[in-house]
Specification:
Length: 293
């Protein structure tokens, strides 16, 4: 559902609740004020025996008691009428708001603004089933995740180690695995960049992210698209074609870095925790899709 529509529905529903809550104490007080106090029950006439006639006679009714409740004053009746009228107006407003909410819900359902079901692959960058890889190949789609690849030695933060429930020995092994993967990635990127540009100085000084960017930038768009199509086919189990362009060899390598790191972590952590640590260490992820038309 669109944010604006969600806000409208929330506002209308909140207004209904506010009207009901605000009206409740006033209606209670108004109903008590509108009812005239009950007159005390009149005393039953007393009877006394007449000595002369020998029959019962009714005694005179007692005089009104001092301080007895008086009838409702005209001003009280007017206030009660105002409350009743206000209640009627507020009730009509509540009905209008309820109708508005129903109309907004109907429009949302008719326009298809309900949140679509999320593709379960969208939250993942590894661990795909064969059927999912086949579907991704049909869309020429590749995706990959990378740890924090740097030229400097990797340092695992104590906070991340604690969140992953890693002992000190395990944290040291994780740091060593990331360091080894980073060195391998930098070496491959240097080779691809140097082949694409011939710039030896840049190959030795640019950070890994810049190297990756330049490798694709220096490749023709058609070559990048063809490379993506080929790598998607290979990941779905189809046999690779003979070695192709720089872009193809780059994508074939870079899409396996996350898997390589996870494999390096499994002997020390086990498969399940290695996958969790891989996800925690991933600082970048990429999705490339779309076939040539």
């Amino acid at each position: 559902m669109k944010p604006a529509l969600k806000m409208a529905l929330a506002f209308a529903a909140g207004a209904i609740v506010a009207q009901i809550v605000a009206r409740a104490p006033r209606l209670w007080d108004g109903s008590r004020a509108a009812q005239p106090p009950a007159d005390p029950a009149p005393p039953r006439p007393a009877t006394v025996a007449s000595a002369a006639e020998g029959g019962p006679v009714q005694a005179s009714p007692p005089l009104p008691q001092t301080g007895a409740t008086s009838p409702v004053k005209p001003s009280d009746s007017g206030a009660a009428a105002d409350l009743v009228e206000r209640e009627r107006a507020e009730r009509a407003q509540v009905v209008t708001l309820q109708a508005r909410v129903r109309e907004l819900e109907r429009r949302a359902a008719a326009s298809g603004d309900a949140a679509p079901e999320q593709d379960p692959r969208r939250a993942r960058f590894h661990g795909f089933t064969n059927a999912e890889l086949q579907a991704m190949a049909q869309n020429c789609e590749v995706r990959f995740d990378l740890p924090n690849v740097r030229r400097e030695p990797f340092r695992l933060s104590p906070d991340l180690g604690a969140r992953q429930h890693l002992s000190e020995a395990e944290q040291a092994k994780v740091a060593a695995a990331v360091d080894a993967v980073s060195k391998d990635v930098v070496a491959h990127l240097r080779t691809f960049y140097l082949e694409a540009t011939g710039d030896a100085a840049g190959a030795d000084t640019l950070d890994p992210q810049s190297l990756m960017h330049e490798i694709l930038e220096k490749s023709p768009p058609a070559a990048v698209q063809a490379a993506r199509t080929e790598i998607a086919r290979e990941r779905a189990g189809l046999p690779p074609l003979p070695a192709g362009t720089i872009a193809e060899r780059y994508l074939r390598f870079i899409t396996t870095v996350g898997d390589s790191l996870q494999s390096a972590l499994e002997p020390a952590l086990g498969a399940q925790q290695a996958a969790a640590v891989r996800d925690a260490l991933a600082t970048s992820s990429s999705v490339m899709s779309g076939c040539a038309r």
